[in-house]
Amino acid sequence: MNNNNSNRLIVVTNRGPYNITEVKDKWKFEKTIGGLTTALLPVLKQTAGLWIANGEPPGFYPHSSGHFDFDLRYIGLTPEEILGYYFGFSNDALWPLCHYFLGRVNFNREQWEIYEKVNQKFAEVTLEEAKPGDMIWIHDYHLARVPLYIRAMQSLAQIALFWHIPFPSPEIYRVLPWRKEILQSLLACNVIGFHIPEYATNFIESTIELLDATIEEDRVCYNGHTTKVIARPIGIDYATVDKEARSRRTENHIRQLLDTLRGQALIVGVERMDYTKGVLERLRGMERLLELHPEWHGKVTLFQIVTPSRETLEAYRAKKREVDEIVGRVNGRFSTDVWTPIRYLYRSFSPSQLIVYYRAADIALVTPLRDGLNLVAKEYVASRIHQDGTLILSEFAGVRFQLPEALMVNPFSVDDIANVLQQALTMPKEEQRRRMQDMQARIKLQDIKWWAQEFLEQMTPLRLPA
Ligand code: GDG
Hints:
There is one protein chain. The protein is 44% helix and 20% strand. By secondary structure, it is α/β, with parallel strands linked by helices. The chain folds into two domains: 9-234 and 449-456, Glycogen Phosphorylase B (Rossmann fold, 3-Layer(aba) Sandwich); 238-445, 3-Layer(aba) Sandwich (Rossmann fold). It has a ten-stranded mixed sheet with strand order 5-6-4-1-7-8-9-12-11-10, with helices on both faces. Strands 15-14-13-16-17-18 form a six-stranded parallel sheet, sandwiched between helices. The protein has a two-stranded antiparallel sheet with strand order 2-3. Helix 4 (146-153) links the parallel strand 7 (135-139) and strand 8. The longest helix has 21 residues, at 109-129. It is globular and about 65 Å long. The chain starts with 8 loop residues before the first strand and ends in a 10-residue tail after the last helix. Residues 1-5 have low confidence and may be disordered. It binds GDP-alpha-D-glucose (GDG). Residues 33-36, 38-39, 164-165, 234, 270, 272, 307, 348-351, 354, 371-376, 379 line the site of GDP-alpha-D-glucose (GDG).
């Protein structure tokens, strides 16, 4: 429980920042993987607040335990709850819907009811911890019903929510059977944030169309309450990435990696295994490049890192099988005694290992079919300490607005991917530098601290320490 008198930041997320296990009577804390953890850890460290999430073992882990600089409370959910709320309604309904994959959407009333129950549980735990004046910052589509439950129990609560994935156009959104319930809850927030103006506009238009809400400047008015809607793309911890990219350890690992390539150009792709990330299409694009440009045979390698994700869902297991198959096909077609065009790494890496790949790669191929923002693109840019290298970026990633100097590609077009790869492989260093410098300047300025500050400023006098 919080005995501190000052107002504090309470972050509420589905997944916690650490996997906690007991090893020889001692707690072992292992960082979890994903965009949200990467982004929020530095914010929580700075504000010394409280992080509430689903996690095991349930309980309260005070910052005084010395493991981290903030308090942590884990809610233990049952396997049935996780199945219905997380794998079910969150990732088999909302996730595909918001990423415009209507064919993959699976609506199920039982899962919705479990989602409701779990969201209510999150709200109750949050109010057990929150004191008047604390700022409650909820994250993402897993917890869309939490604001309404909190508001019903605590009418003066300060509630913000950041939606990390796309908010689809009203035409897509209104397919959702519980479209009104989700919107009504989001409008119980004081502030709701999206990465880019397009998602904010989609949200506002949906509230007008489905709830008859009214708009006053950047606020949506509904049911006697107003909600401020803002668009701020999440940032990365630029300084930390930059420092790691310059370290001697990174330098040594890059040398070892490049030795294995003997002067070949290196392309890198990094993502969770997810059908939205366009890995399959990208591998086909690589295949097309090798068909169209035999001059690159033996001279270019794609390192495709894929982190296992949501393996309980058949859609994710099926995607992995397809990726395995195409890697085998392309390598079977083009490999020689001394060259393998695609090196496919299906496992997790540490952040510093990822930075080695970013720094070593001449090209980053970031081609999601739809992505809320995309942090990998930013991490690649931040790692380029010599200000060279080329970022190839999907037209359907939210981050395109912050990185317009990237080479844009239509990830659905295999030919476009091949052509843009050819353009990147032949881009003069001077042009690479011009583009990279501009991107770095923006990503450095609009880093994670900037994002958190911009968001928190909308709420209370709560500020990050300088
Ligand atoms: C959601 C939205 C939005 C990846 N593999 C490993 C690893 N990662 C890290 C990357 C990056 C993060 O995970 C992935 O972030 P993305 O933004 O690319 O994608 P999502 O996980 O889908 O994130 C997305 C984000 O939320 C933030 O709002 O940008 O649009 O979908 O940081 O480096 N990290 C480690 N090992 C790996 O193997 N340690």
